[in-house]
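Slide 14.
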Amino acid sequence: MRIPNKLQAGDEVRVVAPSTSMRINQKENARHSIERLEEMGLRVTLGKHVNESDEFTSSSIQSRVEDLHDAFQDSNVKAILTFLGGYNVNQILRYLDYDLIRNNPKNLCGYSDITALGTAIYTQSDLVTYSGPHFSTFGMKKGLEYTEDLFKKCLFAEAPYEIYPADYWSDDPWFRDQENRTFNEQGPFDVLQEGEAEGTIIGGNLCTLNLLQGTEYMPSLKDKILFIEDDYLTEDLIFDRDLQSLLHLPDADKIKALVIGRFQPQSDISDETLRLIIERKAELKRIPIISNVNFGHTQPVSIFPIGGKARIIANGQESKIEILEH
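Slide 15: predicted structure.
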């Protein structure tokens, strides 16, 4: 396990678009993202091809690979933020120079479709990557305090930190109307099964992680703390099927714990339905399981290290998610 150096004031952050093109971003939101990151003491630069866009609202494989390689090779760059997720980051995986990445460790952060990129880099380079906010996430004017707090605890400090429940959550299209937001009160995370465990974290977006099955980019599930989430396109039957597919992998019966991100309301996966799905998974018996955690496609989002270490405690209605090594 290789952990990149933590960030310091004055460090340069490179923005890349390995999935969706940055051309779709509103200039005001991009400006606000830069301002937020500069307030943390970071300097923001953009990859050369981030605004290229084709018929699929992305850029060529060559352009996306070039921007990633440039970011990892540049000794001034200390962190790499993805602009957004999307659908096609897995196109570039076989074209990446994993030796170059291994020899130039940087903090790579993003979520959703970026799950495939971060997991592949961890599997091929033994480099810890981060499932957390995109560059575009920092364009949010209201409700970003939780995300900023955990971002700093994870990428600026070495001490263990806890992924704690936010005070509120939201699923509104904030990027369309920054002033009229809808926030919902949040309680504690839900304990679906009790227990305690420690292990290595893998995970992110479930349907994206499943794209890696049968490839050299899929890590073993043995002794892993599995973090999974999915977006509004997922309903109960799809989530059940996708989870079962993952649990058919070798060593799935050796998963140490399961942490599930909050579903978007449009998914229509109720707490009761989720419990029924989990109860019917023989591979998940006797391990701690926590749900409605702040990561995934609702806001705010936390951050966790793919390849890092975590301790999970689920006891009655009490739960704790502690990131030990990141």
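Speaker note: The longest strand covers residues 195-205.
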